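Hi D.,

Good news: the full-assembly prediction came through. Inputs first.
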Amino acid sequence: MALHRMSFLLVVIILATKASGQSKPGCSDRCGSLTIPYPFGTTSGCYLDESFLVSCNISSDGSPPNPFLGRGNATILNITLDGELRISTFVARKCYNQSGLPIDVSGSTLNLARFLVSNTKNKFTAVGCDTIALVLGSEMQNYTTGCLSLCDKVGNVVNGSCSGVGCCQTSIPQGVRDFSVGVSSLGNHTSVFDFNPCSYAFVVEDDAYSFSSLDLRDFQKRTTVPIVLDWTVGNLTCEEAQKDLASYECRAANSQCYNSSNAFGYRCKCSSGFEGNPYLVDGCQGTQYNLYFKMKLKKLMMIRNCLLL
Ligand SMILES: *[C@@H]1O[C@H](CO)[C@@H](O)[C@H](O)[C@H]1NC(C)=O
Ligand SMILES: *[C@@H]1O[C@H](CO)[C@@H](O)[C@H](O)[C@H]1NC(C)=O
Ligand SMILES: *[C@@H]1O[C@H](CO)[C@@H](O)[C@H](O)[C@H]1NC(C)=O
Ligand SMILES: *[C@@H]1O[C@H](CO)[C@@H](O)[C@H](O)[C@H]1NC(C)=O
Ligand SMILES: *[C@@H]1O[C@H](CO)[C@@H](O)[C@H](O)[C@H]1NC(C)=O
Ligand SMILES: *[C@@H]1O[C@H](CO)[C@@H](O)[C@H](O)[C@H]1NC(C)=O
Ligand SMILES: *[C@@H]1O[C@H](CO)[C@@H](O)[C@H](O)[C@H]1NC(C)=O
Ligand SMILES: *[C@@H]1O[C@H](CO)[C@@H](O)[C@H](O)[C@H]1NC(C)=O
Ligand SMILES: *[C@@H]1O[C@H](CO)[C@@H](O)[C@H](O)[C@H]1NC(C)=O
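Then the structure:
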């Protein structure tokens, strides 16, 4: 009987741990299909500071609500507690008509208030057979890099390969908070127009893009690609932040601080054997594995107590 009650309790505990939200108590942790863990939040009092605001725009036409980063217009795709934030950005393009005149030109810019473009998870990429592409920082962030991609027939390109034939790639520097992407051509696409009327360029999550020869025609009609941002809290290192416990954001017992390699500021994680949200008091819970062993121990104690009686 007692045993039954205990396993029942255990199930309740496990369910409770699983179901417990990642947001502050009383705060919504969703916007459409996006899960929003604290320090992010959608309403006042639910996020750490303005940079963690997610504007959840309810549309009037009944389609799912759209999450935007801060008060800007970048759509959020995913937020993870290990310090990654995915947003979608535009693909820059320049398209020519048969006589070699540009008919459709658009750039792509990103201006982030606080977070940085991950230099390890993203690549600057250009697609085309008569393509020269550049990515530049703003006046505050002086950097320029780019790449060149050429080819004279579709047969020469290799799917999955961005080494300058149909597709080229280059890394982006550390510490990038804004960029603008521009694309152009050496000639005017007349010699490749039949299979490649446009040049394309974008910063993209490395794992989310694989070049295909099908992209040469119309980029398979995609206009946006995902990009990974690094998010951190504060602007101090772990050691500095720990000096003032009132503002130290690793609030959970059984949590740890770690530095970011790209951005200033720090991150928190649950200690080994615990999982959940380290930014919330009581956020890090023992994993089911631990609960299982705790249960075993309790059972053993009960059996021992019975034997002793
Ligand atoms: C979100 O909705 C508000 C109010 O309807 C509107 O002013 C704002 O422009 C919308 N933001 C975006 C990025 O669409
Ligand atoms: C956001 O707005 C800026 C300025 O109006 C524009 O250049 C940019 O393309 C927009 N980005 C998105 C994702 O809508
Ligand atoms: C967000 O990222 C996490 C971790 O990479 C993944 O498990 C989850 O499925 C992603 N969610 C969406 C909506 O892409
Ligand atoms: C190319 O575009 C220019 C400018 O829009 C136009 O004058 C010309 O007729 C176009 N040529 C073709 C072949 O479509
Ligand atoms: C495009 O390039 C070709 C070859 O270099 C040239 O003959 C033609 O005049 C160019 N067309 C335009 C519109 O610049
Ligand atoms: C960036 O470059 C411009 C022009 O060369 C210069 O005036 C400016 O001071 C530089 N800014 C930084 C932050 O280095
Ligand atoms: C690349 O893959 C697509 C299908 O994914 C295929 O249709 C195309 O022929 C391939 N191109 C090359 C050059 O192998
Ligand atoms: C660091 O954060 C503090 C408090 O949020 C702020 O006053 C200060 O301006 C920030 N410094 C930098 C370099 O961002
Ligand atoms: C964080 O960075 C500081 C300064 O670079 C370094 O002294 C410290 O050891 C790092 N702390 C952790 C926990 O990695």
